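Review form for a predicted model. The reviewer records the input and the model, then writes brief findings.
Reviewer: anonymous (R2)
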Amino acid sequence: MRKPGEVKARISGSQSSSSSAESARSGEDRRVFPRVEMQLEARLVGENGESGKADLLNLSRGGVALRIDVENGLHVFPEGQIKPGKAVGLRFDLATPGRAPAMVQAIGRVVWSQRVPGELFVIGIEFTAFHGDSRSCVEQYLFECMRIE
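Model under review:
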C-alpha cells in the first residue's frame, strides 16, 4: 500500500529548449528536464489568495504539469483566466520508498495552458522559487525515480 505522496512514477524524456511560450504555441514538446509522470494531489494558491485543488501529472526540476477542473481549481486565477506569466503557489507531498513524505512548497509561473474535454484545464508551471529545502526534496525524488527506472 502506498503512503500519502508516494507514487508509482514513469520517466519521460527531454528535448532541447527554446522559449516555453513558443513551444506552447507550436504544440511542440521542448522540455529541458526529464519528467516523472505521476498522479498526485496538489494545492494551488493564486495571487488573489484563493486556494484550490489540482492533480499533479508530471514533475521535473524545472516545473510541473497540473490538471485542474473548473469547480475545484479555476477560482485560483483572477476572473478564471489562466494566462502565461501568472504567479501561483504550489504545495504537494512527495515520498520515496523508505522515507517519510516531504511537503514541497514552491512558487511558479504559468507557461502554458490548454482546455481539455470535461471542464478541465492542463497547465504547465515553471518553478521560480522554493520554500525551505523543497528544491532538494524534488531533486532527491527525481533522482530516486530515475535510479529505479
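Findings: The two ends are 20 Å apart (CA to CA).
Further findings: Residues 10-148 form a domain with the Thrombin, subunit H fold (CATH 2.40.10.220).
Recommendation: see findings above.
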